[in-house]
Design a protein that fits this description.
Number of strands: 6
Largest sheet: 6 strands, mixed
Strand content: 5-15%
Order of helices and strands: HEEHHEEEHEHHHHHHH
Oligomer: single chain
Strand order of the largest sheet: 3-4-5-2-1-6
Low-confidence stretches: none
Structural class: alpha+beta
Mean pLDDT: 95
Radius of gyration: 23 Å
Number of helices: 11
Shape: elongated
């Protein structure tokens, strides 16, 4: 089993199943970014009056494509499967959509290289028409200034919130917020600063950050990996405040876009250490 064999089986099944009117690949392969470690992401468009019954028995349907190691509905709400394969088990993400909702594809953050790369079966021709408008589209921010306002707002808001966790001595909660919220916002700000935003709406900001920012910024980012202990959380928080301030200031100087400078400057007066509440 591999990605190509799986897609071939899915295409064969879609053509022969009268309930299915369309099959779309919406994974990295449609943009030519897949490799042997990639998963398979497919949307099947099901006739609306058959969708409920199809969804109720999806595990039986999915089992015919290979040796299932896992089949469940993940946190995003649609079926995720893992099939036995080499060199790694193959992840296949299914999305079952009513044929009456085909137009919703137009909002997907995808930029296929061609209609053929994305549309694998199209009984009505409607999918091809929709995907044609998506070929080669920009996945950068639709409004870069609005994106900067939102991300910089989140960054400084969560900086303040995480300081509260530190003051409560909630080390693991502070660590989680730093690693999974603050670093995400910070790397997004780095992308806006560098202009490397080609897939801004379609991927995590940290994806490919090693080549998306300057060596100086990458070195600064690498310093934000906390070791064990609250002292380390405090250290990286203080460094993140300085780095975030510098990035926001640089973007403002270049683009003229406002950001939460007043909050940032107030935060810079706070002593994050556990037994102190302010400087001066």
């Amino acid at each position: 089993m591999n990605q190509k064999l799986m897609m071939d089986k899915l295409m064969e099944t879609a053509v022969s199943d009268s309930r299915i009117v369309g099959l779309v690949d919406y994974g990295s392969s449609v943009e030519g970014r897949n490799d042997q470690w990639s998963d398979v992401d497919v949307a099947l468009f099901i006739k609306a009056d058959h969708l409920a019954a199809f969804d109720a028995n999806w595990k039986t349907w999915a089992a015919k494509f290979g040796d299932l190691l896992l089949a469940y509905k993940g946190g995003i709400g649609h079926p995720w499967c893992v099939y036995d394969a080499q060199p790694l088990p193959l992840r296949v993400d299914f999305n079952f959509i009513a044929d009456t909702d085909m137009a919703s594809m137009q909002t997907w953050p995808k930029s296929p290289t061609s209609v053929e790369a994305m549309v694998k079966y199209d009984a009505t021709g409607e999918l091809a028409n929709i995907v044609q408008s998506m070929v080669g589209q920009s996945l950068g921010p639709e409004d870069a200034e609005a994106a900067f306002a939102s991300i910089s707002g989140d960054f400084w808001y969560y900086i303040l919130r995480t300081i509260g966790k530190i003051k409560r001595e909630q080390e693991w909660l502070a660590r989680w917020e730093f690693n999974f919220i603050l670093l995400g916002n910070l790397t997004a700000l780095m992308r806006l600063e560098s202009g490397y935003t080609e897939r801004f709406r379609a991927s995590h900001a940290v994806d490919g950050i090693e080549t998306a920012v300057s060596p100086q910024r990458l070195q600064q980012l690498n310093q934000l990996i906390p070791a064990q202990g609250m002292d380390e959380i405090i250290r990286v928080m203080e460094a993140a405040i300085e780095l975030g301030y510098g990035i926001c200031q640089a973007i403002e100087q270049k683009e003229g876009w406002p950001w939460p400078r007043a909050l940032a400057e107030r935060i810079k007066t706070i002593d994050i250490n556990l037994n102190d509440c302010g400087r001066g």
